[in-house]
């Protein structure tokens, strides 16, 4: 089933014609309504009528997150407050947050895109939809909520946290759909087992997971634990929120971008030049229909690739790969670049470990070093009579070091813990603990 058959299966040439019309409308909007863009365009001598095809977008300046912070709170809005019906924001890790706005029509468009996303995930009208994303300034909770209602699903707006209450609601209400971060889905499954329940014996059929990078190995773990189809959803508050793209449950092979509302590019984050389809680079988005907060060539910081091949589900939209990581969460260990998701892929293939881990960064003289904290599975822990010095534990630690060295080309010190020794997530998982400064800084 496809929610918007016309737009999700539009032939490429027709989509490009629609995109260029909407791009020109967006450029006209930002030039006339956002001082920041008017000044940028004038500096570069850009005339909107010169942007005649998709390739011409490279003539336009980039927008960065710092630009949003520099114009905090409302300096990049294209509509006055009296035309805005909602504000969202992201929690700033270094100072002020980013603030985004929506008109009534923006909310309508967003809701339709989430409805598309839920259908792509395997959902349908009449479903009961368990929404465990956080409600508030974060776009996840309300974004999924309004989209599910647009589809005609009944929403359980349970938000995050209080995992036992979540499980009770799943048992009693019997939802088909689950939405939360992948790390929290793991937490729910583990808690079910701790309560003596069979985590696969539930009403859930599909899960929509996002807000943090996760690997194919993590998908397999979640699907096995909960007995569901798990799909990745992507979005960021600056562009809209969740629903910019989503995997389909048919292929689970790349996230379908809503091309009629967003124009995607992939660039080399160092040279800023475009990279060819299939190659990893930084995702750059231009909004095509946003009224209150249009953005031109927004550098997301997310690393992924795209393909324009038709999917077996029938959709013709551009697909992006899973996000490999962010340009600002890449770890450099003794000169080698590593993303946490690459380490995750290795760990989840090793028998005897739980799917939870943390990377702690510290200084060894002038060099950055990493300490990998993992925990053994319940089965291994009980099998060695709770002896953390057991020979099997030492063999497992050596295996971890060897596999990470082979796959990621870095050496890490491994710290093995007992089950449940790593904090569980009720939202975004804390994968990196940066102890290179005097005061540890948590990076999600």
Automatic annotation (TrEMBL):
Question: Could you tell me which Pfam families the record lists for this protein?
Answer: AMP-binding, AMP-binding_C_2
EC numbers listed for it are: 6.2.1.30
Domain called AMP-dependent synthetase/ligase: residue spans: 90-285
Q: InterPro entries of this UniProt entry? A: Adenylate-forming_Reductase, AMP-bd_C_sf, AMP-dep_Lig_C, AMP-dep_synth/lig_dom, ANL_N_sf, PA_CoA_ligase
Give the record's keywords alphabetically. Coiled coil, Ligase, Nucleotide-binding
The pathway noted for it is: Aromatic compound metabolism; phenylacetate degradation
Write down the chemical reaction(s) this protein catalyses. 2-phenylacetate + ATP + CoA = phenylacetyl-CoA + AMP + diphosphate
List each coiled-coil range: 13-40
Q: Name one GO molecular function term.
A: ligase activity
Give the enzyme's main class according to its UniProt record, as a single word.
ligase
Could you tell me which residue ranges the AMP-dependent ligase C-terminal domain spans? 335-436
Output the CDD domains linked to this UniProt entry.
Answer: PaaK
Q: Which family does it belong to?
A: Belongs to the phenylacetyl-CoA ligase family.
What is the annotated role of this protein in its UniProt record?
Catalyzes the activation of phenylacetic acid (PA) to phenylacetyl-CoA (PA-CoA).
Query: What is the protein name given in its UniProt record?
Result: Phenylacetate-coenzyme A ligase
Organism, by scientific name, is Siminovitchia fordii
């Amino acid at each position: 089933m496809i929610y918007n058959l016309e737009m999700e299966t539009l032939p490429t040439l027709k989509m490009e014609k629609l995109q260029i019309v909407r791009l020109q409308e967006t450029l006209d909007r930002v030039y006339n309504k956002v001082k920041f863009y008017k000044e940028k365009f004038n500096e570069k001598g850009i005339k909107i009528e010169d942007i005649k095809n998709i390739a011409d977008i490279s003539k336009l300046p980039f927008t960065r997150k710092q630009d949003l912070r520099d114009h905090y709170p409302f300096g990049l809005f294209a509509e006055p407050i009296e035309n805005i019906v909602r504000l969202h924001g992201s929690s700033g890790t270094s100072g002020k947050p980013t603030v985004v706005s929506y008109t009534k029509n923006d909310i309508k468009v967003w809701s339709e895109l989430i409805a598309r996303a839920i259908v792509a995930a395997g959902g349908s009208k009449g479903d009961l939809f368990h929404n465990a994303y956080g409600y508030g300034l974060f776009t996840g909770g309300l974004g999924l909520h309004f989209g599910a209602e647009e589809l005609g699903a009944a929403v359980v707006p349970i938000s995050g946290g209080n995992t036992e209450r979540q499980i009770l609601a799943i048992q009693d209400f019997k939802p088909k759909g689950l939405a939360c971060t992948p790390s929290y889905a793991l937490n729910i499954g583990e808690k079910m087992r701790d309560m003596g329940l069979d985590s696969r014996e539930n009403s859930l059929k599909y899960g929509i997971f996002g807000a943090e990078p996760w690997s194919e190995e993590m998908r397999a773990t979640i699907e096995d634990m909960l007995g569901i189809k798990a799909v990745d959803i992507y979005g960021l508050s600056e562009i809209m929120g969740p629903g910019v793209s989503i995997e389909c449950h048919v292929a689970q092979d790349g996230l379908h971008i809503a091309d009629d509302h967003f124009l995607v590019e992939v660039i080399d984050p160092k040279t800023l030049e475009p990279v060819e389809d299939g190659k990893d680079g930084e995702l750059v988005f231009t909004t095509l229909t946003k009224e209150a907060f249009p953005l031109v060539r927004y550098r997301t910081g997310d690393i992924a690739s795209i393909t324009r091949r038709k999917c077996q589900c029938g959709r013709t939209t551009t697909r992006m790969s899973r996000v490999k990581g962010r340009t600002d969460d890449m770890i450099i260990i003794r000169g080698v670049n590593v993303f946490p998701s690459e380490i995750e892929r290795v760990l989840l293939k090793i028998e005897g470990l739980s799917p939870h881990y943390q990377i702690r960064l510290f200084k060894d003289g002038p060099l950055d070093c990493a300490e990998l904290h993992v925990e053994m599975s319940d089965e291994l822990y009980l099998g060695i009579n709770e002896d953390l010095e057991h020979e099997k534990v030492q063999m497992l630690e050596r295996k971890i070091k060897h596999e990470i060295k082979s796959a990621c080309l870095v050496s890490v010190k491994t710290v093995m813990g007992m089950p449940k020794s790593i904090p569980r997530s009720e939202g975004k998982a804390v994968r990196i603990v940066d102890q290179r400064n005097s005061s540890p800084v948590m990076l999600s």
